[in-house]
Design brief:
By secondary structure, this protein is of the alpha/beta class. It has two domains: 2-36; 61-131, Nucleotidyltransferase, domain 5, CATH 3.30.420. Helices cover 40% and strands 16% of the residues. The chain is built from four helices and five strands. The protein has helices at residues 2-14, 20-36, 85-95, 111-123; strands spanning 61-67, 73-75, 78-80, 100-105, 130-131. Strands 3-2-1-4-5 form a five-stranded mixed β-sheet, covered by helices on one side. The protein is elongated and about 80 Å long. The termini are far apart.
């Protein structure tokens, strides 16, 4: 009887599947996708930007601020109060000091809100704030 149990455990050990190579492949794929992913910070809302004939591309986008037509301000996919814009810009500017600030204001948004956002950017030490337009 003991001999029969010993032979069963040997057979069970031989039929076990080794998952180590599969896990190695999965981890390599995970590392590949993390390294090749591009992390773009978005505002979280779509705005209808006004058109401009003198629009040009800005490099090193790091801080995007959206102003909706009803005056809501969005950063990092969340709605923020106008009084929190400066603190958020300072935090994001610390992450990427060479990045610029781009304000995506809706064509029907009020100038008052856009000017407050620009003032908050200047108070945060950003002198190269831009206003996004479509060509």
């Amino acid at each position: 009887m003991a001999r029969k149990l010993a032979s069963q455990t040997i057979i069970e050990e031989e039929t076990a599947v080794d998952l180590t190579p599969m896990l190695d492949v999965v981890f390599i794929m995970l590392i590949f996708f993390i390294v090749t992913a591009s992390f773009i910070k978005e505002t979280g809302v779509d705005v209808r930007r006004p058109e401009s004939s003198s629009a040009n591309q800005v490099q090193n986008l790091s801080i995007l601020i959206a102003v909706k037509e009803n005056g809501e301000v969005w950063m990092d996919r969340r709605r923020i109060d106008i009084r929190q814009v400066r603190a958020n810009i300072e935090r994001l500017r610390a992450e990427n000091p060479k990045g610029s600030v781009v304000i995506q204001a809706d064509g029907k948004s009020t100038t008052d809100v856009v000017v407050k956002v620009l003032d908050a950017a200047r108070e945060a030490g950003v002198l190269d704030a831009s206003l996004a337009t479509s060509e």
